[in-house]
Amino acid sequence: MRAAAAAAAPWAGLALLWAAGFCAGDAKGYRRRVSLEYNPGWASSRVNLLHTRAVGLNDTLHYVWSTIGVPTVLLVYTASDSSSLRVNWTQLLSSSPAGAIRIDPADSVLYSTAVVFPRLWEYNGSNTSDLSLVKAGQVYPSYNLANFTWASLDGRMNETTLSADFQGSAQE
Ligand SMILES: *[C@@H]1O[C@H](CO)[C@@H](O)[C@H](O)[C@H]1NC(C)=O
Ligand SMILES: *[C@@H]1O[C@H](CO)[C@@H](O)[C@H](O)[C@H]1NC(C)=O
Ligand SMILES: *[C@@H]1O[C@H](CO)[C@@H](O)[C@H](O)[C@H]1NC(C)=O
Ligand SMILES: *[C@@H]1O[C@H](CO)[C@@H](O)[C@H](O)[C@H]1NC(C)=O
Ligand SMILES: *[C@@H]1O[C@H](CO)[C@@H](O)[C@H](O)[C@H]1NC(C)=O
Ligand SMILES: *[C@@H]1O[C@H](CO)[C@@H](O)[C@H](O)[C@H]1NC(C)=O
């Protein structure tokens, strides 16, 4: 899986690309069953929460991508092929969302981590990902991703290619 942030002012996109079938590399052709779920348990497309579930033989990888507040990805690895995501939407959309997202059963969780994308930097350096090599004056003012307005993911997901296209525009 690859997550890429790209910018072409004044819009930015977070692209989420999955290798179709998400092969785990087993010689016998072991594959995970991957599915996408948009705003599970919430009948609105005003906010974006994308749940990808990759079920293996005895385990499940849950990825939760959200543009509620700052763009965030949550990864939870569980030792169960039937673990499920529970979202308390009332709490998630409140001012104290901590604990609004959990996995059931909680004791199946082996590992969890989160990545937050607070800012987006844009620079002129088509040949480098090493910011130290970029000349002064070629790094542009950064975007605060928390201030972005994100388009609804509704109609921007593809269950066949297991991809979703997050698009946001800056107001700064
Ligand atoms: C899955 O779990 C069962 C029961 O614990 C075990 O017998 C089996 O070997 C496990 N399979 C894999 C691929 O880990
Ligand atoms: C969801 O969160 C709200 C606010 O914290 C709480 O009052 C409610 O009981 C929770 N609902 C469930 C099903 O846990
Ligand atoms: C980007 O850098 C290249 C090479 O240093 C330069 O030729 C070009 O003018 C720069 N573009 C902008 C928009 O600053
Ligand atoms: C990037 O690298 C290629 C190949 O080395 C070179 O031809 C090109 O001019 C470089 N572009 C910039 C903007 O430095
Ligand atoms: C953008 O976010 C910063 C920091 O959170 C805040 O100070 C600023 O007012 C925001 N700008 C807009 C246009 O919302
Ligand atoms: C999903 O992607 C495939 C391959 O690019 C394409 O053929 C198909 O039309 C797409 N489906 C939707 C609903 O966009």
UniProtKB/TrEMBL annotation:
| Record keyword Ribosomal protein present | no
Residues annotated as signal peptide: 1-25
- Answer whether the UniProt record assigns the keyword Transmembrane helix to this protein: yes
Where in or outside the cell it occurs: the entry states: Lysosome membrane
- List the InterPro entries: NCU-G1 (IPR029382)
Give the GO cellular component terms, alphabetically. Answer: lysosomal membrane
- Protein name per the record: Glycosylated lysosomal membrane protein A-like
The gene name reads LOC106553930
